Amino acid sequence: MASVHESLYFNPMMTNGVVHANVFGIKDWVTPYKISVLALLYEMTASKITLPERRRLNKLILPLQQGPDLTLGQFLKTVEECCPQTAYAVKLRLHEMADGELKDMEYFFSTLPTPFTAFDTEAYKTSVVGLFMRHMLLAYNKLSFSQVYKLYKSLQHYYHSHYAKPMDGQVPALVADDSEMDLTSIEDTVGDRVDKEELDTPLHESELQSDNTPSRGPLSQKQAEYFLARQAYLLKNDENKALKPAALQEELNNMLKFNPDFAEAHYLNYLNSMRVQDIFLSAHSLLHYFDRLILSGNDGKSNGDEGYGRSLRYAALNLASLHCRFGHYQQADLALQEAIRIAQESNDHVCLQHCLSWLYTLEQMKGSDSTVLTEDSVKMAAHFCLPYLASLGIQSLVQQGATQGKTAHKLMDALKDTDILHWKHSLSELIEISLAQTTSIWRMYGKSTMSLQQAQLLLNMSSLEPVNFGVQQNNTEGFAVVLCHLAELHAEQGLYGVVSEIILHLKEQFPPHTQHAKLWMLCDLKIQFERHMNEGKYHLAEPLVTAIAALNQTEGLYRKAQVLKALNRNTEAYHILQQLQARCEKAKCTEMVIRVMLSTAELHWESSGFSTALPVLLQALALARQHHLQSLASETILHLAFTQLMLGVPEQALNVLHEAIEPILAHRAVMDKGRAMLLAARCQMAVAGFKPNRQGQAADLCLAASALDTLNEAAAYFSQLNCKERLRDVHYLQAQLHRSLGQILESNKSAMLFRLLDQELQSPAPPVSMRL
């Protein structure tokens, strides 16, 4: 089930994105890369371009202007993807200037359209292109002759470095040596409050800087802002389109080398470290972020002592959330208590509400009952008009209510009320969590159709977030949960080709190093395990138990007991099931307790203890009905019907089975449908008076014919899953039933199919009467 606190991180960077760098001098606008962009804009205004190409180039303008400087090769490749003709024209224009003389560059600037007179082109003064050209022309005209010469030499170096062969292990520099080119001063990257004397002091190298990282010079203020905003947005919404963790770390190290007090770079470093689960570097970067935020004085609306305290309490709160993420509950509790203490001293009700939300989340992670804390949090959040936290609390209560046996209509009513709140305040993250929770709840209750509908609703929902940078789908926990449910639902129907496509998409969307990758890893392993068990390939299922246990110990123990039971190691399986049941009862994991009871009953069958299995099954049925788990209740009724059949009351077994057959055929897996139909056929055969391995006709020919139809339907279900062991049982019963009815040809055909499967499986068939 989706975690309701997946996005509860206070992030001052997102609300106060002030970059701690100096207001850059106007001469910083004139660089070789910016001249290349200017050449592109000139060619766009001067040449004829088709409408689709012009649209693609227009989308490219802003990222090229605001993004970091690119090498000439990267720049030309980017333009060529949009319009090859324009890329070639830009290349010729740069060639004329770089291989010509200084007057060629002067001529290029003199021929640019004036933004104040170009009314009918993209270069109009109020357009993006016009503003950029005005800045470039103003900056160029203010350069001295020596600076113009240095710019020209730099342009030559920029152009020729693209065609020169770089030496092994070296990256071609974008600018000439600092002694020749000094248009972008390192001094400009220092904060506004740095005095003239402090500017003469060289910046120290950041301790996070790698020795192997090439220095490419400082970014301008707008470039740094654009880079950080873009990467933070992609990390939140589509991590695959962000830079790889190592590449992003390298860029941040380069940025921090020139400005170690860049607070927002430290915060992005913290987010990047969280991607690879690096607890040390993430805590290190988070503390550095708040240290720099406090020292810079740019920590929100408050200043002075109040602003200092505000940063401290939110630093402690973020540190608590970090430890929660890594499962360090004791450290998280200490940090949370510190945040609460500072917030109480400052009378900060908003921070206290965030602390209370994390407090009940921490109690849930520890396995304690946090219902009272959650209810208090919802009331206080509503009192202080904090809809985000109030909705999170209600979703948490719904999640707890689902595990405590609350009825579906009460939970859905609560979620409906929160959905109204979400749409009213455009809380898209909480809408996703709500839909993922609804999907999980319907799945838990055994309503696969409703679960599938909610999953499709989330996947096809248009996001309320402004979709920038080509992001089409969020990589949040809600999407991962829903996609895993879809994979399991398709696997239950035997559609393993579709399952492979969904798992492949999950692997691409959530790479193994990401936070939510464990969800699809566990889902994939469970699907493989069930498939091997259905096909009778226990030697392939056994190695998966260790991998499942590494991700979820409870699931691993349950799967281990299943494998041991299939291998007839019943004593070992029984001990594991008893241990697992005690653990799950303590943790109040009702679903797993019922599954363990069903497996225990099956072990009783192996020793012909059908009467001893009845109390266990009745207890499981009572639990399933108490918690409204229709899927598990139907499975339990199936076990009860089989037990009654073995105890010699087939009429009663058939009546009980009719109660469960409808929800099984409507919502259960193909394997369960086949097992139910096989059991129904056996009950019909017993009621008709058919006795296996005995000559003579059945007393009730109508019931016997109905049993044949039921067996054919069971065979169709088992064929979908390639379940040869079950098919062998079906063909055996078909051969016996056909023979008792005098249908020799059909009997011989079923016998032949049985013989072929028996030879293929090369394993002794267990008694049909001893297995459900």
TrEMBL record:
Keywords on record: Cell cycle, Cell division, Cytoplasm, Cytoskeleton, Mitosis, Nucleus, Phosphoprotein, Repeat, TPR repeat, Ubl conjugation pathway
Keyword Zinc: no
Region (Disordered): 198-220
Domain Anaphase-promoting complex subunit positions: 266-365, 604-662
Domain Anaphase-promoting complex subunit 5 N-terminal: 30-162
Any one GO CC term of the record: spindle
GO process annotations (BP): anaphase-promoting complex-dependent catabolic process; cell division; positive regulation of mitotic metaphase/anaphase transition; protein K11-linked ubiquitination
Metabolic or biological pathway, per its Swiss-Prot or TrEMBL entry: Protein modification; protein ubiquitination
Compositional bias (Basic and acidic residues): 198-207
UniProt-recorded name of the protein: Anaphase-promoting complex subunit 5
